[in-house]
Amino acid sequence: MHPRDVLLQDKLGEECGIFGIFDRDGLAVQEITYYGLYALQHRGQESAGIAVADGQTIRHHKARGLVPEVFDEETLDALQGGKIAIGHVRYPTYGDTGLYNAQPLVIKYKKGFLALAHNGNLVNAEVLRNELEEAGAVFQTSVDSEVIANLIARQIDEGLEKAIQKTMSKLKGSYALLLMTEDKLIAVRDPYGMRPLALGRLGHSYVVASESCAFDAVDAEFIRDIKPGEVIIISQDGLKSIQMPVPLKSGLCVFEFIYFARADSTIDGISVYGARKEAGKILAVEHPVDADLVIGVPDSGTTAALGYAEGSGIPFGEGLIKNRYVGRTFIRPSQVMREQGVRIKLNALRKIIKGKRIVMIDDSIVRGTTSKKIVEMLRLAGAREVHIRISSPPVRFPCYFGIDTPTKEHLIGAKYGVEEICRIIGADSLGYLSIDGLLKTVEGSSCDLCLGCFTGEYPIEAEC
Questions:
Q1: Domain residue spans in the chain?
Q2: Average pLDDT of the chain?
Q3: Distance between CA 186 and CA 225 in Å, rounded?
Q4: H/E stretch holding 384
Q5: Looking at domain 17-250, what is its CATH homologous superfamily?
Q6: I need a labelling partner for 88 at 20 to 30 A (CA). Which of 11, 18, 207, 289 fits?
Q7: What is the DSSP secondary-structure string of 49-93?
């Protein structure tokens, strides 16, 4: 197991989170960015970083660990005096976990300084890197974010706006970007809109974040989602929008609504909480069962469980308790520790479970190992029956666009049918939300969705 991995290894890996602010009110941008990143911590726990610009230069601090581990009063004080800041929390899906791969990436080039924070994954990163190295470029990291920075720096003589536009024309994959020069904040969303990115206002200042929940954390007002293919340049003169060409069909990752995003976020016009609750309601119609109690696997299965209970008329209860101080580890766990991982993170409430027919709601089954352990736990707690309901379709294909998905041979949904998966995890019955049902949960979204992990049909052909 890789040192970044957590004890509970049956979920898709999180994405990264980015936050930026352009100050026009005399704010402490480093502190606001700290709290913005804190709200986005669920998107990445491997490392965190903040860079600030003061009109002359860019200073930054980054390290491995969670946001409150990386930053304290002393490190934040050292970043005082900036007018612009960008921050990043990282879950590595490309490149290794060394500190040199932590972001924001800060480079000095002939026109000054450039800082970059990136959420996503380029499927042509290796091709572009090889081309740049053949042309004499030297890379300090193994992340594709440095490829983007190099491309911009090499075309900067035509001006920053033109350099960004030309760079976008060469990139293939998913990216939500925050770029910062000494006096500008630039937000970029890829033409397919695969990763979310939102614009907000704090007084007269502008903020940008992966999710709207970060605006709530800093008392900012949500303005709108940044459109697929849009470049927003924020300076002392105000805000400028440039719309790049986009495909006929966009492709926001549907797992934002199923699992990745915080329930209190709104993405492309859709409430994450509302989508998850509706998924539970539809699941109750598609896969009804005679039972005594509905429970959810905390935290991501809880909202869908509430929806299932409402849709079925079966009472909702808190049958599983989560240890909120477990979530990641930088040690290399032994096999025994891995096997005990579920019990370390979750525990069944025996008084609630005993003698009851349980419907357990979870957001997905990836490898199947965790689901099997939870079923065993519920039976040991005295459950008469355990019926599993999943608020998404079976995950049958890997993701190439910034989600840490196991290879196809490790996806239980790729190897077995529903009845066989039910037998493997030891449940009395198993039901998945249909793709049609899933799409109903996000009706009205301003962005089309990528369903590649369910269908194998991707917006972009993967070069891997």
A1: 17-250, 270-455
A2: 90
A3: 15
A4: none
A5: Aminohydrolase, N-terminal nucleophile (Ntn) domain (3.60.20.10)
A6: 11
A7: EEEEE-SS-EEEEEEES-HHHH--HHHHHTTTT-SEEEEEEE--S
Find the distance separating the first CA and the last CA of the chain, reported in whole Å: 23
Angstrom distance (rounded) from CA 67 to CA 38: 6
| Catalytic residue list contains 16 | yes
Residues pairing with 241 in the sheet: 232
- CB-based burial label for 242 (10 Å; 0-12, 13-18, 19+): middle
Residue 27 DSSP one-character state: -
Residue 251 host element (H or E): none
Query: Which among 9, 40, 11 has a CA at the least distance from the CA of 265?
Result: 40
Packing angle of the helix pair 302-312, 272-286 (nearest 10 deg): 50
Chain position carrying tokens 């037998």: 423
Q: What is the pLDDT of residue 2?
A: 35
User: 207 pairs with which residues across the strands?
Assistant: 21, 200
Which residue is associated with the tokens 């989600």?
Answer: 403
Given 16, 213, 399, 422, the catalytic residue: 16
Q: DSSP for 187-228, please give it.
A: EEE-TT--S--EEEEETTEEEEESSTHHHHHTTPEEEEEPPT
Question: What is the spatial distance between Cα 323 and Cα 338, in angstroms, rounded to a whole number?
Answer: 16
Is the pLDDT assigned to residue 187 strictly greater than 80?
Answer: yes
Please, are residues 308 and 361 in contact by the beta-carbon 8 Å criterion?
yes
Calpha distance 83→437 (Å, rounded): 46
Closest CA to 436 of 311, 312, 254: 254
Q: Tell me, what DSSP letter sits at residue 316?
A: B
- Nearest Cα neighbor of 365 from 9, 5, 1, 2 is 9
With cut-offs at 50, 70 and 90, classify the pLDDT of residue 333: very low
Per the CB < 8 A criterion, the answer to whether 368 and 10 are in contact is: yes
pTM equals: 0.91
The backbone torsions φ and ψ at residue 100, rounded to the nearest 5 degrees and listed phi first, read -65, -15
Identity of the residue numbered 375:
V
Q: Which CATH class is domain 270-455?
A: alpha beta
pLDDT at 207: 98
Of the candidate ranges 115-129, 270-284, 396-410, the one whose mean pLDDT is the lowest:
396-410
Note whether 36 and 71 are within 8 A (CB): no
**Band of pLDDT at residue 436, cut at 50, 70 and 90:** very high
Kindly provide the b/e burial profile for residues 106-137, where b requires at least 16 CB atoms within 10 angstroms of the residue's own CB: bbeeeeebbbbbbbbbbbbbeebbeebeeeeb
Q: Nearest Cα to 166, choosing from 153, 179, 182, 183?
A: 153
Per-residue pLDDT band at 323 (split at 50, 70, 90) = confident
pLDDT, residue 141, reads 84
